[in-house]
Amino acid sequence: MRDWHAGTVNAIRLRGVVKRYGSITAVNGLDLDVPEGTCVGLLGPNGAGKSTTMRLLTAQSIADEGEIEVLGFRLPEESKQARAQCGVAPQLDNLDVTLTVEQNLRVFSYLYRVGRAERRDAIERALGIANLADRRDTRVDKLSGGMRRRLLIARSLVHRPRLLLLDEPTVGLDPQVRQELWALIDALRAEGTTILMSTHYIEEAQRLADTVLIMAHGSAVAAGPPAALVAEHAGLEAVEVYGSPEKLAEVEAAAAAAGFRARRTGTSISVLGVEGADGRAPAGERRPTNLEDVFVLLTGEEIA
Fold first, then answer.
1. φ, ψ for residue 116, nearest 5 deg
2. 10-residue averages of pLDDT along the chain (304 residues)
3. The overall pTM is greater than 0.85
4. What domains can you pick out in the chain, each with its CATH number?
5. Which residues contact 140 (CB under 8 A, 6 or more apart)?
């Protein structure tokens, strides 16, 4: 894979990282760079190794092989120093439901050793970022799922971390709430916060990430800016062909014989990279290619 960030300063650097659980290799020789001030998305289906990678970066799991550096600190030896400058929003909601929104933030301001003189301002800033100021006195068990997810992110920001780790930040949320979370992540990017975000939503990765690393079976299969990945692997245009299974099989075989890549999309087949095909492309509905084409082409998986 091309090195898209040569010469930049990396907030995260992984080289040849392996993590095994018995006979299962969850992460297999992973290389990853997250340059400072960028948002990098780990995109992959369930079981691709995204959450294991996040646990390795917070030293909740220890790699069996390879090198891990976070904010210039070696893991696991210097994990305490790294965690002090990181914010983590986990996939699973672990908020204290017996406390209010503000009390949850206050507890974490103590844990992250925010100075007494700065504590109030830090909490107010976190409330403002997450748009939860009017809910400060609401108990967490009375919040909607979207509000709880925003509070998880606010909690991770209370100590002004240099690096934010978001593990499946919008999993299980409806599209409207997901849009709210995207706006929050966009605002953090605009402030220059370095973000590593794992997701299995293709649109989320394409919308938010400067660089995407596609994972499958614990390994990286492609990395680069979303538009560059699309151009490299899927071309600029696709033809969507609908029909019976027999017709689709014929179209797929003809596309392969003509040198085109193709992917199944349920009741249709997409023939990729047909721009400038000089009449060799099959008849069908033309459309721009997208990151989903690349994902399915490279991983052979459907998004969960």
1. -55, -40
2. 59 98 97 96 93 95 98 96 95 95 97 95 94 96 94 95 94 86 90 93 93 96 97 95 92 92 89 85 92 92 51
3. yes
4. 10-230 (3.40.50.300), 236-288 (3.30.70)
5. 95, 96, 97, 98, 99, 100, 101, 104, 148, 151
